[in-house]
Amino acid sequence: MPDLVGENAEEAEDQLENLGVAESRIKLRADDGHHVVVLVASNWDVNTQSVKTGARLGAKQVVVLGVGKSTWRERHHGHLL
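-> structure tokens emitted (81 positions)
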């Protein structure tokens, strides 16, 4: 399992799929306290992951990525201080 924390959620999903994880086994969960549904993965950043970095994934294991909404400015100019 790669370290996906800090990655854009869409890119994180792509990385997992490239490693052979089926799309149906990747779940995005909004953890910012304001949103309920993740509609467009590219608008979110990964804050947490359910599988530890470096761990092997089981054949049917689900990966849950806790994501927070990033702003346009953060996506295009880096995080604000």
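The chain has a mean pLDDT of 88.
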